[in-house]
Amino acid sequence: MKISEWPLPYVRVKCAQCDREGRMKLAGLIERFGPDRDLFVVREKLTEPGCKRENKKQPCQSILPDARLVQAIVAKTEDDVLVKELLPEAREWREKLGMGER
Questions:
Q1: What's the domain of life for this entry (predicted)?
Q2: Three-state secondary structure of 15-41
Q3: Based on the number of CB atoms within 10 Å of its own CB, is 92 exposed (0-12), middle (13-18) or buried (19 or more)?
């Protein structure tokens, strides 16, 4: 997914190993990396330099905790949503973002 396709006004990145977490404004990330940059590449660029893991041979375990919510927001139909429990929050975001009904 390109940064410009991420619908939320922020991007949260969290380490699944050490629980380090950060939240960045989407506009700032677009300015820094460009709108066409792959968000998963950006996630790596944000987390790798400051990663405190002892074994640098193992990959960074950073995740985008809101990825499933984003999937629910951008899904073409509610049947396509992977985590149905996120539907109420996804509907709220769709309304806030002016994405309309499905």
A1: Bacteria
A2: ECCCCCEEEEEHHHHHHHHCCCCEHHH
A3: exposed
CA distance 77 to 73: 10
pTM of the model: 0.85
Residues of the chain falling short of pLDDT 50: none
Sheet with 21-25: list strands edge to edge. Answer: 21-25, 10-15, 62-63
- Inter-residue contact 61 to 16 (CB < 8 Å): yes
**Digit-coded pLDDT (tens) for 14-26:** 987 777 889 999 9
Per-residue pLDDT at 48: 74
Residue 67 is predicted with a pLDDT of 97
Cβ–Cβ under 8 Å, residues 102 and 35:
no
